[in-house]
Amino acid sequence: MALLITDECINCDVCEPECPNDAIYLGTEIYEIDPARCTECVGHHDEPQCKVVCPVECIELNPEWPEDRDQLMSKYRRLTVHPVTE
Known about the structure:
Blueprint: E1 3-5, E2 24-26, E3 31-33, H1 49-53, E4 59-61, H2 69-79
Antiparallel strand pairs: 1-4, 2-3
Cofactor: [4Fe-4S] cluster
Protein name: 4Fe-4S binding protein
Domain 4Fe-4S ferredoxin-type: 1-29, 31-64
C-alpha cells in the first residue's frame, strides 16, 4: 500500500528529503504523499524511510491504495526506468 500522512503531522520537514521517489510534498496544511509515487521504499530500502524519521509517527498505510509487495516493486520499476539515449 502507499503511505498516508495523518493530521498529526507537525510539518517538521524531515520526511520529504528522505523519500527516494519524491512522493512527499507540502500540501495546503501538512505534508502529503502522492500514492502514485509511493512504493513504501520497496526497491530502495528495507523499510519506509519517512516512517523511520517521523518524530510523531503520523505515517500509516493508505487504505485507499491497497498494493502488495509485487505491485510496489512494479511501481518502483516504472518510476526508476531511465530512457535509453544515443
